Amino acid sequence: MSRSPEPVRHVLGAAALAVALVAGVAPAAWAEPDPPAEATAPVDDLILPVDDILAEIESLDGSESESKQGQTVTLALTSDVLFALDRAALTARATARLGKVAGKIKQESAGGLIKIMGHTDDQGADAYNDRLSLRRAQAVQEGLRELLAGQGVTFQAAGFGERRPKVPNVVDGRPSEENRARNRRVEIVFTAR
User: Fold this and answer.
1) pLDDT the model gives residue 79
2) What's the Cα-to-Cα distance from 84 to each of 37, 62, 79, 132, 187, rounded to whole Å?
3) Is 25 helix (H, G, I), strand (E, B) or coil?
4) Roughly how many angstroms between the first and final C-alpha of the chain, as a whole number?
5) Which one of 74, 90, 118, 128 is least enclosed by Cβ atoms within 10 Å?
6) Which sequence spans correspond to the domains of the chain?
7) The predicted structure's pLDDT at residue 142
8) How far apart are the C-alpha atoms of 104 and 121, rounded to whole Å?
9) Beta-sheet pairing, 153-159 with 112-119
10) Distance separating alpha carbons of residues 93 and 148, to the nearest angstrom
C-alpha cells in the first residue's frame, strides 16, 4: 500500500504556515500598541445643588422637638405642655419650659427676628382654631419678650389653626389622638449664629 501525496502536502503546508506565523507575523501582533494621543477635551466643573440636611430631635414623650435646616432653628412645644384645654394663658409648667427656650436662644441665636407660630389640631371650627392659635402664639411671645429683654431680638406672632399639621390628624381613616396632640403646638423659629 502506498501513501498518497495529498496528506503530506497538507502537513507540509500547515507546518510552513506555523513557521511563518511564529517567525514573521506573530511578533508584530504581540508588540505594544501605540500610546493614545493626549486628551485635549475641556474639563467642566460640575455645579450640583446641595440640599440642607434637616435633622429633628424629639423628646421621648413627644412634647417638644428641635429641628435645624441651615441656620434656621425651629423649637416646637406641644400646646398640651403650655396651655390648658381651649385656653391661651400660659401654665406654670409653660413658664419653666419657656425659660429653657430663652436660654437656648441666648446661647445660639444670632439675634434679629424670632417667629412664633401657633397651630391647632383639626377639631373645632376654622375661625375658632385660627383665633386660638394666634392667641397662644402671642402668649408665648409675651413670655419670651420678658425673658429675652435686652437681647436684641424682635418678635412676630402668627396663628395657622389646623392648616399646617406636623403629622396627619387621621390615620387609616381613623382619628389619631396622638397625632392631634403633636399638631397642637407652638413653634419658635430663630436664626443661629
Assistant:
1) 94
2) 79, 17, 8, 12, 17
3) helix
4) 108
5) 128
6) 55-191
7) 98
8) 27
9) parallel
10) 18
CATH architecture of 55-191: 2-Layer Sandwich (3.30)
Q: Within the chain, how many helices (H) and strands (E) appear?
A: 6, 8
Cβ–Cβ < 8 Å for 159, 53: no
Q: What is the DSSP string of 47-107?
A: ----PPP-EEEE-TTSSEEEEEETTEEEEEEEHHHHB-TT--SBPHHHHHHHHHHHHHHHH
Read off the C-alpha cell for 126: 376654622
Which residues, at least 6 apart from 99, have a Cβ–Cβ distance to it below 8 Å? Answer: 147
| 31 grid coordinates | 508588540
Nearest residue to 91 via CA among 102, 104, 73, 78: 78
**Kind of pairing between the strands at 64-69 and 72-78:** antiparallel
- pLDDT tens figures, 2-57: 555 565 555 556 666 666 555 555 455 556 777 777 767 676 776 766 555 556 78
